Amino acid sequence: MLQRTCAHCSKTFLVRPQLPHQAFDTHLHWRMSVHADPAHRWLRGVVHASLVYASPA
After folding, report:
1. SS3 labels along the chain
2. What is the pTM of this model?
3. CA 43, 45, 49 angle in degrees (round to 5)?
4. What does the pLDDT look like over 2-42, one tens digit per residue?
């Protein structure tokens, strides 16, 4: 979802991986000084939503 959202903003494109892939854990890290920053909160929300959307049920 994130890559599709950003694809129209730049000259990027989606490529399907040629090799099988396994699930992996994802962690977001940021400085405490930007924890409450609206832009960072928005970005974390977008990343989280894209990962939840892409996760198998």
Report:
1. CHHHHHHCCCCCCCCCCCCCCCCCCCCCCCCHHHCCCHHHHHHHHHHHHHHHHHCCC
2. 0.48
3. 120
4. 556 665 666 666 677 788 877 777 777 888 888 889 999 99
